[in-house]
User: Fold these one by one.
Assistant:
Number 1:
Amino acid sequence: MYSYTREHNRLLKIHHRSLCFLILCRVFVNRSLTLENIKCYGFDMDYTLAIYKSPDYESMGFELIRDRMVSIGYPHELLRYTYDPTFPTRGLVIDTTYGNLLKVDSNGNILVCSHGFRFLNGDDIQNYYPNKFIQRDDTDRFYILNTLFNMSETYLYACLVDFFTRCSRYTNLLKGYQHGDLFMSYRSMFQDVRDAMDFIHDTGSLKERTIKNLEKYVVSDPNLAVLLTRIKEVAKVFLATNSDYTYTEVIMKYLPKRSWRSFFDLVVVDTRKPLFFADGTVLRQVDTESFGFGTYTGDLQHGTVYSGGSSDIICDLLGVKGKDILYVGDHIFGDILKSKKRQGWKTFLVVPELTKELNVWEEKKNLFEELKRLDIFLAEIYKHLDSGSRECPDITAIQTRIKVLTYRMDMSYGQMGSLLRSGSRQTLFASQLMRYADLYSSTCINLLHYPFNYLFMAPPVLVSHLPPRSNTCTEKESVSFHS
């Protein structure tokens, strides 16, 4: 017997999956941009063209820096810790004075605070930060963990604080730990973690492990070759990566599975971004047969590989201006902020975590809708009160409910919550994304879904005193690519 309800529910599920697919394929817009005006596309490699598989890649990086810490004298008990992908998120701030991990908004207001794996409540936070606020400009004390490479060191630092806090051999002090005559500050621990991270990069151990098992650690998407081929038909294309040529050659050969240099007019390795966007370094030509370096002379030759240089040299070699370039990268500081502020390049930020963010949002958006309803309800309570009113409404229950909803939303993303928000408040990472990235998406492959004369229109941003326009668009319009 035909069941209308069963068929209706089946169609609703199909429709929901279709809408989710459309959303995941979107490129999102902060500032309007016409692709027809772009004469040159630039790409970073790591976490942009080469997407590393999470959490396997971060787990491998964690093991390498953990083992390095033990080899320089840290307790062997640290080897018991394994990487937990549910804990760290990008954009956290390490307080090197008190050893806390902080999630803050654009103004430095503290949204979440943990000491090791112990999350602090409001009173505990005020003991450290009386105003629940930090001076982000104090870069000697506060270190922002903005890159995906930072995920493993973020978790390792939390492991260190957790271990020394729990270990009876060490005395807990305000700014570190005491063991006999040895005082170990949070700042020195942080520096050791940073040095260990630099060590596995500089010695090539991270790259060696990656190369030995490319299938485990690197995503190979056949659509990448399609995208680069189509872009090459309408514009110039360059690759600018901090990686050396040996590693770049292995990774790029694995990705499109064909002669990868043919996709690019120019390849630049060892760029040392963000220095690349300022004075840069000496430009040298790479001998792709011997992997040695030569001296750069003359005009650009197609497919030539260079080492070093600067963004100004890129423009000169390709014959383009800053406003003609759309640069695609994953590093909010090294790729996006510096190319935007110093060179005026158009910017596209790759945010791989966006896939999870969007999926969780679709599943839990009812919680956010309830938060908005509570906000309206609060406004109604106070609507008829003014400075002469003596009435004091009891909003304790509403405040408690808001806290519960915010916590439930945050825990849907992981222990540190969403990359982009805490409840209805935006994180520091979200504010930087909106300020410096013209476009952003979970992957650069999503550019395939747009024609190269497409006009990306940013939604109008109104100041608070202007009422938003009524939401009359249909559900189909709200998730279309025209955003």
Number 2:
Amino acid sequence: MSIQYRCTTLACLFVNTVSSSSTVQLGDGRKNDLTSKALAIQRAVPNNVEDEYRFASYRIFSLPKLTLLPCANVRFQSRSPLPCLEVGSVRTLGVSASSILRVGNTGPLQAVARIKHIRHFNDRGIR
């Protein structure tokens, strides 16, 4: 895939939080490969099991990456008579869990977030 690069101008950007293998990118890029693994264990009473804190103990972390099936070829043509991409204002609370906020053009993008939450509480009223 051929990418035609150009300048990018952004009048105003507000991002409160960027976390967990996420990216804020201004301008054009070739490729992004974002990966995030997280294991969140929360208990009212500690219960330390030997393999509980290893990613290998949970199937979700060993599953293969999902891939998209090939789709029909599509003819696509884009013309940018102006050499610059102009964006007004972007305001977001957060970019998290292997995601990207990009103002510009890009090539291939892969993003994987795998998160296992374990929550055990003695009181059923706590959620």
